[in-house]
Amino acid sequence: MMKNTLLGLALVGGMSVAFAEGVDTSVDGIFNALTTTSNLQATVDSLVAGGANPQSIVSVAAAAGIPLDTVKDLQVCVNSSAPDATVLSASCMRQRSLVTAYAAGVNDPMKYLPATAAGKRQSKDTSKTN
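User: That's the sequence. What structure does it adopt?
Assistant: Structure tokens below.
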């Protein structure tokens, strides 16, 4: 029974990795994925499986205008397994970390939004020489 359960989990893990292979984990890719999805949890899962930073996902969600309550309902977890696939584990963002990452996106949306037609993002060093 235990062997079948582990085999099933390994197959599901393999399918999620196969699904995540073509995932764009840049800020633009995360933004586009979050704003065009009909299943936010599945999208977050595929972004994390594709290697996206969980804090970046939450910050981009904030900058994109996704409500904090909606983001709090998400499970933002990173799954890992031992090389022999006998131990599976998940580490999930704590609510405090999630709120902190959300605040970063709200407070500095230009850092977490895609480049616009106005041009490339400018660096924070805006020393002017007049």
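Confidence is low (pLDDT under 50) at residues 1-20.
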